[in-house]
Amino acid sequence: AGLGSPRVLRGSLTAPSPQDWEQRQEEDTLLIERILLLVRNVLHVPPDPTEEQGVDGDASVHDRVLWALHITGMDDLLKFLASAQAEQQWALHVLEIISLMFRDQSPEELAALGQGQAAAEHGEDTRELETLRQRELAERRARALQRPSRHSRFGGSYVLQGLKAIGDRDVVFHKGLHNLKSYSHDLGKETRRVPRRRQAA
Which long-range contacts link 29-33 to residues 24+ away (Cβ below 8 Å)? Predict the structure, then answer.
């Protein structure tokens, strides 16, 4: 089954469908019905293994017809006809076509196929996430090893004996020892701004 025939059928089927069902001519309605019946009859042909003589795993004629219908977008058009409120008169034809599409498949196989795909995709996603997580942990460890244990601005805390703070306690100095020469009790306090008129001459 080439792609030419389904393309022609799909083109003929989409030509009258945008029209409202009340404005549709009798010829358009007959054309749609004939096309749906033709698709149904093509899919209704029983498989003949002696005629096909295919290799194991090779696609059967039925599968190739379904692939041609999918490539040309005929399956999307059938879904539209099945779900459109104004096209309910074709529902039984579309239902019969869909049942013939799945003629060789059992529901158990179809359900298992979907679950197998989902499980495979889920397993692949899990593996990718685990790989990304391991890479991020390795980068975090490498950054932790490169950074020094203490940053250079930390000078420690020192107790200045002999210099009293409030309450007869020794002064605790939080700056580096090289800043000790410039120590005063006003260190860290905001300087009070004196207005210009009160400044000393």
Answer: 32/90, 33/90, 33/93
CA–CA distance, 90 with 82 (Å, rounded to integer):
7
- Which has the minimum average pLDDT: 19-28, 59-68, 84-93? 19-28
Q: Tens of pLDDT along 164-199?
A: 777 788 878 777 676 777 777 777 778 888 888 888
pTM for the full model?
0.43
More confident: 187 or 16: 187
**CB distance 38 to 23 below 8 Å:** no
- Going from N- to C-terminal start, the domains of the chain cover 24-46+59-105, 154-184
- What integer pLDDT is reported at residue 17 of this predicted model? 47
